[in-house]
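Teaching assistant here, posting this on the class forum so everyone can see the example we discussed in section. The complex has three components, and the goal was to see what a joint structure prediction looks like when all of them are supplied at once.
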Amino acid sequence: MRPARNPNHAIAASIAAVAFAAIAATFTFEPVPPGLPGLGAVEFPRLVSAILFLLALILGLTAASPTSEDDAPRISSRAWLIFALCLGFLPVMEIVGMIPAIPLFLLVVGLLWGGTAWPTLALSALGMGIAIWIIFVKIFRLTLPKGWLVTLLGF
Amino acid sequence: MTFMLKRRTLARLGFGAGAVLAAPGLARAQGGFPERVVEVVTHAGVGGGTDITARMMMVQAPSEFKQEFVVVNRTAGSGAQALQYLASKPADGHTIILVTQTHLLTQIRNRNVPQFSELVPLVRATDDPQLVLVRRESPFRTAADLVAAGKQRSLRFGGTHVGGVDHIAIFSFGRAAGMQQPTLVPFRGGGEIVINLVGGNTDSALVNPAEAEAQLRSGEVRPLLALSEKRLAGFPDLPTAKEAGIDCVASTVRGFCVLRGTPEDRVARLEQGLLRAMSGPIFKTYLENTGQSPDSVVGRAAWGAQLQAFHESGREALQALGLLR
Amino acid sequence: MEGFLGGLAILVDPWVMFMVFLGTVLGIFVGALPGISGSTTIALMLPMTIAMGPIPAICFLGAIYCAANFGGSITAIMVNAPGDPSASATALEGYKMAEKGQAGLALGMSAVSSAIGGIFSIFVLIIAAPLLARAAYSFGPPEYFALAVFGLSMCAAIGGDSAVKNLIAAALGVLIATVGMDLTTGVERFAFGIDELADGIKFVPVLIGLFAVGEMLDQVVRRAEKAKIIAMDAARVPGMAEFRKCNRSIWIGSGIGTFIGALPALGATTAALIGYNETRRWSKHKEEFGKGSIEGVAGPEAANNAAVGGSMVPTLALGIPGSATTAIILAALIVQGVRPGPHLFTEQPTLLYAVFASMLAANLFYLALGLYMAKFFARISLVPPAILWPFVFVLSIIGAYGPDQSMGDVVIMLVAGVVGFLFRRTGFSPAPLIMGLVLGGKMEETLKQSLIIFGDDVSMFATRPIAMALLSITAIGLFWPLIARFWRMLGVQR
């Protein structure tokens, strides 16, 4: 179990930070061209950010019971590993291309997930990779990222 | 989103057969260019007006060039990404870009994208002149009424976003007519511009005839001037701005370009082939049905001159509007 | 009358009916797949339909449009991945139902309410299209502003575990909507010189991330938990009792959807969100919302499919498209030599009624297919999570990349996924954020347009009766609890 503390404080602080950053960013906008009527470019975002900031303050002052294990279960080390793999999908895709990366990802994450035997996983990963290739590349002619390794090998 | 028109598919559907017969062996005589799939880059999303122009051209181009054509949509940055995509490819004629005035304005405002001098014009595909419209109940019966009122107060014109092609056209029209600088009311696209004109939220608007076709026919909007060089075939009684003493032309143009450095024989081959592909019945019907002039399709000399002229007038207008830093 | 019968004649033309059936199947399929939307498919099919002749071509494309809007709800319900942006409101309750093991109920209700909404809007289209189209001219920026305020006014009540959190999520959504080039000043906001951001943040990657990837990440953490789904119940389709319960929601959704669809500047996504708001407001079972309410599936599904017929109103009667998809259908009509406009109703009634008849047929086809297939789709719940959720992630990547082939959109989608994950852990709901994103941008834009039209004079809003009426309804809706309490106090004293 987590220590019993008001979780709203951390949430409110991060929301306030977003609002503050947004207000700060409005000062980097280029000036509105001269002679245009109506509201400018910065007023509305500043207003919304200010409201956001205020709401964050209210939230920070509101009492809340600690987050329950049911709403936010602890993130295990294996879950972190899967998160990392999700992020790693992008660079792998850049290298070997999207179509080969898909069965690879499905197999590895499926194994880490657990609960399903590896031959089933391997077969379904391969099948889904092929299905995606047929539907998106062959039928709908989407150009999915090829990856520089594939381009290098001259496909 | 990419889409290929397979020659097989087309033949099955019954097009292209004529064009194949019309261009016997041209590709072989030219040493095999294009030797692989030709990419057509556009800044429009799938289904946008510019995208459809590319796809209509591509119906007959594959049989003309004996090669497949693919549309590559690079939508971000008002043409910036399309231009960067073009520049990232070798200048060998296998990547052509569909250029509109938007690209030229983006180049003028953003020095980091491939500039106008990097482009070699090929052919123009469409040339869609704009009309000056008012709604039926408008007190402005003639162009002279509009100009006279425009000298008294700043008139509200509907158009696309600030710094866009419409903004430049409205500004140039107002200046040529000696009016006070018109106020632009920006909208998202031609449909909203027309609706707000009929609804009385704007005084006037510059619109392509096809965009307001239903309203023109039912008389809900009235054209006052055509911003073209000659009178339009569909509006023989409508005077041009030049006839009314206002030196202003404005039209929506789309055409093809390649990257500088493309060998001259390939440029010539592409120009000839695209001209022929767009002289076929499919593209002709498309132009006719969308209310665009059938002499839209011209070669690189006229197309290049038009681009050059807009490049200069656009820069000057952006400067005068204070949009250039 | 002759035109009407001539139009209906296509219902017995086997070739046209085959094209409509093909379009329906294709539409459900692409609608369900994130990454390929109905509008993309129609654009891709457009050149191929040229040789077909106007009636089969338009019927084919119209069927894709009708069915794709329904198809989006299948993935929204089963894996929380709206296959089409307009299905995001369906995901809010539909996926919760699937989690409770009621996937079959949700899918069946989605098919039925979609078809009723769709058919209702087609009848409105037949009877009142030219009349309804006139309403489009009465809606300028001030009216759209009032409508956006009306839609946003409910966001405090919807979704997460407290009103403050809902408002925060909504404000975040509005802030995201300001990213990109400002229409009325041409200034790039929050773009930091990145081209992808300069064009604004698109709905599709945000929705896919927030819903599908957020859920997938949450499932990663809950990997070890026992599967809660009761397999036997998953395939049950709705019966009379459920329909009676949802009757009111379906009609509310159909009416709202048709009206909003008919307004050229708003589309099916807005229709579904406002449909969701109003379904909840008028429901007798408010407490079920957010926990898997079947009415919360019926209302928005009826609304987004009614918006399909609605958006054909300005397209056919004014020649002005009401959505991205109808823009392409309009192009298809024009390329076929059909000139939409008021005169279409008198000059080419046969073609017009053929379009209506084919849309009617498409709605009936997907109703039959949807009800029949609901049992099979519901079995997706039984796929082992180790196979299902990694696959959802992969589909999300393709879904974000597909429409514009941009890696920038994939990155935005992943960021939205992390936000969606954190939202789940901290008691926030994606619903108000989406409302802020969809309606907030519209609100700012139309406010600024109004000010330009009014010459910076805010009091001019008072001269616009429709806008004032909408703003008053909003105010009454907001303060209704107070008014009701005051009323009751009076009653007690008497």
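For the discussion questions: Chain C touches chain B through 57 residues (CB under 8 Å). Chain C has a mean pLDDT of 85. Think about how each of these relates to the inputs above.
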